[in-house]
């Protein structure tokens, strides 16, 4: 149906086959239970660890496969989306947190955290967003002040919309270690790796979302939490540049999800319209159905081309902030349009949550918000045009 892809090798496709089989046998049958609970059981992450999902990009000395590529993660995103399921907060654990640890953790920190990261014993999250600040990271109010003996930071503040916040064992918290100045609003931000068992650390409400029901999202609060200085990530005051360093990969992951969601919606709609009959004929036989699905197939193809190009650029270390903004903007907007049209072709059944198209519809909406809103993406792209 689609153009031939050249972005993946036989190794990627072998990994894809293992995942597809695993999802069919171990995830799809219990997925409704996960949705009710709001997340998979913690032991599921141990199962993913056994499959090697967490260790692909971790250096061999810490027990990983040592491959510096994003393509295996892209395969995970494509396969879970294809089946209409998620692996809980795996994309955050591997796609968002790991790059920070690989780029900025000391050898001592890596030795302490990475083996447990790979085994699923240490699940991670990152806490940037606050009740009063979303895309404006420079507006962060959470503070971390050094104790008089210089051995700990005292962390105070609150975060919200934290993916994986309920089950996480280690959370990367973005906090102010020095006040912002009028000349540099972005200065003074640092990243602290906080053990969630620390006194004063609390998980507030588990937020009830429109979609993404198996990805736990929480409010976090820090009340005089003592964080050892050994758990500062990288240098104090460099937090903002660290965050922007990883944003292209985060946005690429969301773009892959957008493309995969649109492709899944197209496949669900094709199956449905061939089986469903109205007025004595199949829904697929109407010209409107054919034209709508032809439009959708073309948009999905365009999104795939953009994703594949971005995957190659990212692996080559050449994906710019503006490139990532374009691919995220395009793929998430395509997903919104395509899924909406495909749901319409399902008629009333498209609105019933047991149909995967309904889940896709609810799940995809946030992709135009998190990781930077579509409006923020347009601002970045405009800036790259010199505007």
- Given the structure, what is the number of helices? 11
Using only C-alpha atoms, the radius of gyration works out to 21 Å
Run of helices and strands: HHHHHHEEEEEEEEHEEHHHH
Please list the strands of the largest sheet in the order they lie side by side: 1-4-5-8
Helix percent reads 40-55%
Would you kindly provide a written description of the structure presented here, covering whatever features stand out?
- With 387 residues, this protein is α+β, with helices and mostly antiparallel strands.
- The protein is built from eleven helices and ten strands.
- The strands form three sheets. It has a four-stranded mixed beta sheet with strand order 1-4-5-8, covered by helices on one side.
- A hairpin with a 5-residue loop joins strand 2 and strand 3.
- Helix 8 runs antiparallel to helix 9.
- The chain is globular.
- The mean pLDDT is 93.
- Pathway: Siderophore biosynthesis; mycobactin biosynthesis.
- This is Acyl-[acyl-carrier-protein] dehydrogenase MbtN.
Which features does this protein show?
single chain, 387 residues, alpha+beta, four-stranded mixed sheet, four-stranded antiparallel sheet, 10 strands, FAD, Acyl-CoA_Oxase/DH_mid-dom_sf, flavoprotein, oxidoreductase
